[in-house]
Amino acid sequence: MTAASLADRWPELPYAAWADTAATLQLWTQIAGKIRLAKTPWLNHSWHVTLYVSARGLTTGPIPDGARSFEIEFDFIDHVLWLRTSDGHARQLMLKPTPVAEFYADMTIALNELGLDVTINTMPCEIQNCVRFEDDTTHSAYDGEAVRRFWRVLTSANHVLWRFRSGFIGKASPVHFFWGSFDLAVTRFSGRTAPRHPGGVPHLPNAVAREAYSHEVSSAGFWPGSPGPVDYPAFYSYAYPAPAGFSDAKVKPDAAFFSKELGEFILPYDTVRCARDPDETLMEFLVSTYEAAADLAKWDRAALECGFGEAGNPRKV
Questions:
Q1: How far is CA 216 from CA 185, 194, 197, 205, 268, in A?
Q2: Does position 163 have pLDDT exceeding 70, yes or no?
Q3: 223: closest CA among 231, 233, 208?
Q4: Got the DSSP string for 90-146?
Q5: Would you tell me the crossing angle of helices 15-39 and 144-165 to the nearest 10 degrees?
Q6: From CA 246, how far away is CA 239, in angstroms rounded?
Q7: What torsion do the CA atoms of 162, 62, 121, 108 make, to the nearest 10 degrees?
Q8: Is the pLDDT of residue 4 over 70?
Q9: Would you say residue 279 has pLDDT above 70?
């Protein structure tokens, strides 16, 4: 792979340069995600609310609406939000600098025009010091090129996370995008129940957090950064509950470290982006942090794991 193609697959994404856009986009994705939440039967660990990386951006996938279904997709190539229904109708919103309040109002109008009756809780989730969507005239930035680069990172990370997921035959989540925390994630489960989660996540009911972490997990993913101890894009990996000795485990690559503030392992995105083989560097991190969690917590790895999947070939049994 040439240096140019690597740069396109794993582009630069300095958080400070697009922080305002990231904050706005997170709120826009929350509006779409909450629409899916309002119309979809509850699935364990809130898997029914997520978005998915698509060939052009992020999508809800099909959302049930009586005898028909509809889909909301953020197209980060043409910078359009599409609302499409299974009976052939569609509306679109241009993705451009727009206050959250205006975006929410335009989304509501588009839904009504399509005959979609949806009521959502307009208070953002997992964000401190926030206001309701209809009152937010502060967040309005949209840097289309930065968003395109963000999507390219999500696409590349998605490929590696899916391959990582294929090496596990125990219960595992899809690779999906959580709009609350604004991250792409995949989660493996030991099959055992976990201690009751303490809750306390901003603007997230404790019942949701407790259901999400009802069972032991090793979870990993990517997020683009945020104000705080990790104000740069990074990959992460954590265990719940964290077994004794987890924070001191030796993981790969050498640039990975355990953040005491976050309670998880961190691998700066630039380490992956600048590596000779970014996919393999990320895979080393995913595998070594999972193995640390599984070994220290004494998971039944022989019963839960398998070789990585191969395209077109069924798993050998």
A1: 16, 5, 11, 20, 26
A2: yes
A3: 233
A4: EEEEE-SS--HHHHHHHHHHHHHHTT-------SPSS-TT---GGG--S-----HHH
A5: 60
A6: 8
A7: 130
A8: no
A9: yes
Is 90 exceeded by the pLDDT of residue 7?
no
Cα gap 26→34, rounded to integer Å:
12
Q: Give the whole-angstrom CA distance, residue 280 versus residue 284.
A: 6
- Three state DSSP letters for 203-217: CCCHHHHHHHCCEEE
In order of 153, 210, 278, the CA distances from 275 in angstroms are 14, 38, 5
Amino acid in position 227 = P
- The conformational region for residue 223 under phi > 0 = left, psi -120 to 50 = alpha, else beta, is beta
Q: Using an 8 Å Cβ cutoff, are 220 and 186 in contact?
A: yes
**Hey, is 274 helix, strand or coil?**
coil
Taken as a whole, the chain contains a residue count of 317
Residues 6+ apart with CB under 8 A from 161: 175, 184, 185, 186, 220, 221, 222, 286
pTM of model > 0.85: yes
